[in-house]
C-alpha cells in the first residue's frame, strides 16, 4: 500500500465501541460505532445549549475522553476500529457507523477509502449540513430545525419528531429510500412516541424508529 494513500492528519474521536445498531433501518445489526468529536449545531457544552441550533441532543460528543477516545492518524484509527471487530471469515464485510456530533466535520475521502480497503462497509449519521462523499455506503440524514440541509439525498432520512417549525411532510419530496420518524427523547418520550406512531399509521411513507439500545441497556 502506498503510504501517500493513508490519511496522515489527526482525527478527534470521542469514543469507539462494538455494539448493535439501535435505531433506523439497520436496527439490530452488529456494528462498530465511531463517534467523532465536535458538532456545528452545538458546542456540546451545557452552558451553550440554550443558544444552540439543536438543543435536544442527548449524546456526549465533546472532547476525546470516551471509550477508545483520543486523537488518531488515519492508520491508527482504522487499526483501532478493526481490532474492535470480532474474528470472522475475510469475505464478510465489517460494518462501521460514523456518527457524532457531526462526523462530516472530520470524515474525508482519504479515511473513507482506507476503511474500504480494510473491508468496512461505512454508514454515516449526519445532520446533512455538509455534503457527503458519494463513496459512503449508507447515508442517514437527520435534519434539525433551523439548520440548512444541503444533503437532500441518501439511503435513510431519520427525523426526530416533533420539532417546532419542522414537519415530516417537508421532506416527502427528498430523494431517500427510507423515511423514519424517531420520537424525541426526554420528559415527554411516551407522548412523542404516540405522536410518531399515529403519524406513521396515517402516512405509510414513514416508518417508526425506536431507540432500542436504550430499551436494551446497551451502548
Brief overview, please?
By secondary structure, the chain is α/β, with parallel strands linked by helices. The protein has helices at 74-84, 109-117, 189-202, 212-216, and strands spanning 10-20, 30-36, 70-73, 94-99, 120-126, 138-141, 153-161, 175-183, 206-208.
Search tags:
alpha/beta, 219 residues
Q: What's the CATH H-level superfamily name?
A: Aldolase class I
Helix proportion range: 10-25%
Gross morphology is: globular
Low-confidence stretches: none
Structural class: alpha/beta
What's the multimeric state? single chain
| CATH secondary-structure class | Alpha Beta
Level-2 CATH architecture: Alpha-Beta Barrel
User: Rg, please?
Assistant: 17 Å
Give a description of the structure.
The protein is α/β, with parallel strands linked by helices and 219 residues long. The longest helix has 14 residues, at 189-202. The protein has a single domain (3-216), classed as Alpha-Beta Barrel (TIM Barrel), CATH 3.20.20. The model has no long low-confidence stretch (mean pLDDT 94). A 9-stranded mixed β-sheet has the order 3-1-2-4-5-6-7-8-9. It is 18% helix and 27% strand. It is globular, with a radius of gyration of 17 Å.
Give the helices and strands, then pairings.
Blueprint: E1 10-20, E2 30-36, E3 70-73, H1 74-84, E4 94-99, H2 109-117, E5 120-126, E6 138-141, E7 153-161, E8 175-183, H3 189-202, E9 206-208, H4 212-216
